[in-house]
Amino acid sequence: MSLKEKTEKLKSLIWKMDRVLVAFSGGVDSTLVLAIAHEVLGENVLAVTAKSDSVPDREREACRQLSQEIGAEHIFIQTNEMNNSSYQANPANRCYHCKTELYSCLKKVAEEKQFPYILNGINTNDLGDYRPGIDAARENEVRSPLVEAGFNKQDIRDLARQMELSIWDKPAMACLSSRIPYGEQVTHEKLKRIEKAEDLLLAMGFKQLRVRHYGETARIELGQNEMVKFTPNIEDIVKEKFHKLGFKSVHLDPKGYRMGSLNEVLKEKTDYV
């Protein structure tokens, strides 16, 4: 199907739902779902964003601004995955526990406010990666309209650009817990340290990045086109700032940024489950 045909299918799917609640993370995928839903259903759309230790403050602020840009009603809810010992233990299916908590909370809001459908931003590319959160979506009957309409990641960026959404080229953003290797405990302290470290790099002009938290070591992943900007002088500045955050050593990953790099250590998907 052409992008135009996929777009018409997406609009038709959402129009038939009449009233929808969108799990809104502020990434390009869920933003596109929200924008299309608002275009088709108007005030019968509610965007809901989770307030969680694993979500940086900068992303919550971005969600607030984006919802205003689109014109959709938007609320924040508190999720408590950190109270779940299975989540804190950081198994390979950690995302399942996180999404189960999120969707359980969203279902309560949907029932209270009479929204019969909950939508997420999963696309067809996600189906080819290890995404245990997708199981949580199925179990909670959350719809994935982008998948149903056949959208891949490039389709999403192309349509978002056509619609002049400000985040059409925003780099992918995963929760902060994804920076901690499987099997290592997820703690409030680690999440805050990662958030501050990434904020420092963003403030220095880097855009596509991850700070992986290996014990007392920070492993920095940068986009391939940004690695040349990590000069010896910049490296010294970064190391000094990271040491103040509690990291004893700091390394630049020579392979650069790649989505799901921590999945590379999994021999099998169930190793740490």
Helices and strands in order:
Layout: H1 3-17, E1 20-23, H2 28-41, E2 45-51, H3 57-70, E3 73-78, H4 85-88, H5 94-113, E4 117-119, H6 133-139, H7 145-148, H8 153-162, H9 188-203, E5 209-214, E6 217-222, H10 232-245, E7 249-252
Parallel strand pairs: 1-2, 1-4, 2-3, 6-7
Antiparallel strand pairs: 5-6
Helix pairs in contact: 1-2, 2-8, 5-6, 9-10
Basic shape: globular
Helix- and strand-based class? Answer: alpha/beta
* Number of alpha- plus pi-helical segments: 10
- Share in β-strands: 5-15%
In the predicted model, the low-confidence regions spanning at least 5 consecutive residues are 267-273
Average pLDDT value? Answer: 93
The description of the largest β-sheet is: 4 strands, parallel
Distance between the termini: 38 Å
Number of strands: 7
Query: Could you say what the CATH architecture of the largest domain is?
Result: 3-Layer(aba) Sandwich
What attributes does this structure have?
single chain; alpha/beta; globular; Rossmann fold; Alpha-Beta Plaits; 4-stranded parallel β-sheet; 2 domains; 3-stranded mixed β-sheet; about 270 residues; disordered C terminus; 10 helices
Model description:
- By secondary structure, this protein is α/β, with parallel strands linked by helices.
- It has two domains: 3-162, HUPs (Rossmann fold, 3-Layer(aba) Sandwich), CATH 3.40.50.620; 177-265, Alpha-Beta Plaits, CATH 3.30.70.
- Helices cover 43% and strands 13% of the residues.
- The protein contains ten helices and seven strands.
- Strands 3-2-1-4 form a four-stranded parallel beta sheet, sandwiched between helices. A three-stranded mixed beta sheet has the order 5-6-7, with helices on one face.
- α3 links the parallel β2 and β3.
- α2 crosses α8, α5 packs parallel to α6 and α9 runs antiparallel to α10 (232-245).
- The protein is globular and about 55 Å long.
- The model is unreliable at 267-273 (pLDDT under 50).
